[in-house]
Amino acid sequence: MNKKIVIILAGLAVIIAGIVGFNKFSSQKDAGLTIKKDTFTVGVEGTYAPFSFHDDKGNLTGFEVEIAENLAKKMNMKVDFVQTKWDSLIAGVNAKRYDAVINNIGVSPERKANYRMSDPYLYPRAALIKRTGDTSMNTLADIKGKTMAQSVTSNYGKRAKAEGANIKAVAGIIESMNLITTNRADGTLNDLGSFENWKQANPDADVEAVDVAKEMGSTPDGVLMNKDNEALQKKVNKAMKELHEDGTLSKLSKKYFNKDLTKE
Fold it and tell me: Domain 126-216 falls in which CATH fold?
């Protein structure tokens, strides 16, 4: 074969290989955006009203369920939900069981160091929940030595422990309230909106809440994603900004909390 033709063919082979390799790399990069192609898979508890829970017909619903649905719509994706207990929820992102967790996750410095966090979508208010008439607990300092029913890895659980409380580990607020109402725990630090939702369903329960948001400070909630998935973080933040600007987040907050908690 002519030497010149051999050189030309060899050059073409290199170019074709480069194009194929680039396309393959691009496809892999695009495929890596979400675990399931074109699907935003979200981890939730499904037992934490009004954030994520099952209605009377057994359908998964709630404030954060609707946020996930609206984010997926903005990103032109489908949405799938994976339900699991709180204590294994965040670990599921590392195990790639789902793309993100949307479950009242506080945007703490520790989490930002180990995961990708979206821009905030909620500024919740903290509550000290106790039995009605219990005058021994009115501030965070008062929980020292008290038995507090907490999810141990939550911001509330960590704060209760830091204040010197004895922690009784629970899966979520329903179990916390059961322990308080049956005198097996003194109280719990938890989300005020979640407590109000529980109280509406249990109006005769002898429990009350003290707003301790000023003492605790407001830790905003955000979407938690795998540390390696910067592309998804950017896409979620773009969609989140649109939901802020078009009023969707404000509307959902008023629907579930009777007030707009989406701004600091």
Answer: D-Maltodextrin-Binding Protein; domain 2 (3.40.190)
Give the separation between CA 37 and CA 170, rounded to whole angstroms.
Answer: 35
Q: Where are the domains of the chain?
A: 39-123+221-257, 126-216
State the amino acid at position 153 in one-letter form. Answer: T
pTM of the model: 0.73
Residue with tokens 């949405």: 79
Identical topology for domains 39-123+221-257 and 126-216: yes
Tokens of 251: 């509307």
Query: Helix (H, G, I), strand (E, B), or coil: what is residue 93?
Result: helix
d(CA 151, CA 225): 21
CATH architecture of 39-123+221-257: 3-Layer(aba) Sandwich (3.40)
H helix or E strand, kind and range, residue 171: none
| Separation between Cα atoms, residue 246 and residue 198, nearest integer Å | 30
Residue 101 has pLDDT above 80, yes or no: yes
Tokens representing residue 237 in the block: 């933040």
